[in-house]
Amino acid sequence: MTEPAKASQPLVTHIYTADPSAHVFEGRIYIYPSHDLDRDNASNDNGDQYDMEDYHVLSMEHAEAPCTDHGQALHVNDVPWASKQMWAPDAAYKNDTYYLFFPARDHDGIFRIGVATSASPAGPFKAEPNYIPGSFSIDPAVLVDEDNRAYMYFGGLWGGQLEKWQTGEYDPEGAEPAKGQPAYGPRVAELSEDMLTFIENPQEIAIVDDAGNPITADDEDRRYFEGPWMHRYNGKYYLSYSTGTTHKIVYAIGDNPKGPFVFQGTILEPVLGWTTHHSIVQFQDKWYLFYHDSSLSGGADNKRSVKMTELTYNEDGTIRTIQPYAV
Ligand code: FUB
């Protein structure tokens, strides 16, 4: 069943924002987006057009409330290991501390994932001097599970360089798998108690079909591309992500945080603009999808705006597909 988006307006219009990671902290909805710059960049497959330099934190008192911009929370100039491209972040709360996880290119042009801390969910955040050892690629999403163990999900193809990490080392010649081969999965690593390091080498997540066969690289309607998100619903783990070239947000369900995950279907049909990126959060008794599109900029890939809409489940735990522009 398809649900029209109930609220399809940008949450803020004074800046461009993308890649929203939403959480409920201290009774408010906090949104950790990328901050797209108002520059007329040409698009390429390396993602050079996404030249973001800082993060702003947004928040809302409730789902219908106006959205507050808390101002600059972290700038690339204040991250010793990073050189450019502050891409999709996420945040987590543990140890009476708020953690901002973010990818950026290091001084060798390789994407790594760093962490910054704050006493407030609105920031500002102070970055650790080095990236998380063993981290690579982009799009961190962190789940603090009910047992208080924390897991980071990450990885993105092409500009995000995931295909260049298949040997465990960065290989500039790394490419996507051949037709019919299993697609590359996102990575997961459990975080240390202090949330600043991995306690294990990142593992590749398996996404399979109903028969248990891996989703293949040429199955572009279902294969993993970037933008992982993890949430729990009725005791199951829901891994959702972007399919990249087919521009969908899809999901798979598993019984534990590391999978395997069985592919289910589409959460969000394509939006205006090349990328699609989302998060899912419960606030009070409703669930919400946070996503972005390029409507406000008239379709510029690198000038996106964060939006939200209600997300609903069927009785069997499947998610109803959302058409972003249905009325
Ligand atoms: O915002 C830059 C990149 O675009 C993100 O890291 C990807 O998920 C895509 O949304």
UniProtKB/TrEMBL annotation:
It comes from the Bacteria. Keywords: Carbohydrate metabolism, Glycosidase, Hydrolase, Polysaccharide degradation, Xylan degradation. InterPro entries: Glyco_hydro_43, Glyco_hydro_beta-prop_sf, Glycosyl_Hydrlase_43_Enz. CDD domains: GH43_CoXyl43_like. One of its GO terms (biological process) is xylan catabolic process. The keyword rRNA-binding does not apply. GO terms for molecular function: hydrolase activity, hydrolyzing O-glycosyl compounds. The record marks D139 as: Important for catalytic activity, responsible for pKa modulation of the active site Glu and correct orientation of both the proton donor and substrate. The active site is at D38 (proton acceptor), E204 (proton donor). PANTHER family: ENDO-1,4-BETA-XYLANASE, PUTATIVE (AFU_ORTHOLOGUE AFUA_2G04480)-RELATED. Belongs to the glycosyl hydrolase 43 family. This is Beta-xylosidase.
